[in-house]
Amino acid sequence: MSPVLGVDDVSVRRDDRLILASVDWTVAAGEHWVVLGRNGSGKTTLIRIASLYLHPSSGTVTVLGETLGHTDVRRLRARIALSSSALANRLRPELAAVDVVMTAKYAALEPWWHDYDDDDRRRARDLLARYGCDHLADHPFSSLSSGERQRVLLARTLMNDPGLVLLDEPTAGLDLGGREELVLALDAMAADPRTPPVVLVTHHVEEIPPHFTHCLLLGDGRVLGRGEIGGVLTDAAVSECFGLAVELDRRDGRWTARAATGPGSRPLA
After folding, report:
1. Domain range for residue 204?
2. What is the DSSP letter of 54?
């Protein structure tokens, strides 16, 4: 079986700056990945490539069995669910939450661009209910709290039965309650065997849901580690990734990190 996402020797260069350097990464069916790294490590660039909105300077990208540069990306994008702050900012503020979800059927931003039927609207409302937002279905997107908006966007990702779900920093800007609600929703999503592979981009190990299986560590555009999450998230690897000596702990499937305080525990960079 071909991988759901394959990134082979991918590099991205802008002028004299190398944003991604020879990245190799494969996401297979049944896997849920965290992409972890500090600001400027190349995480969002990698997600833009995976979502077919950016071509690499070199290398090969395959998504759902098709190769970037040799396929109709407009058609293929409809099979990839993407949630990001850039997408949220493009949504019309007056758009009702139910329409935010429903328009994902055609990877669209407005309901008048395509035709929808009662089944589409029913499915959108059911997905909102799945994430505790059914009572917000007819509310303008701009009137929702940050946490409510993120759960609506999460519901949107499943509208079209996608083959791959990409989440670019969905917890950014959330308070503690909103973050924990979203982590619980993401964990339930990952625990459901019907859910396609999910890729979650974050800066914080505390935001990793327990049922996520794999981790990709990025630093300065390079892969510092990849594989099953328990083998990748080590004190040494995360310390290198963030340039600071840290200690990790895992309890009930949730990770925490803090600066190391023992002898010799000083910043690495």
Report:
1. 1-79+163-230
2. S
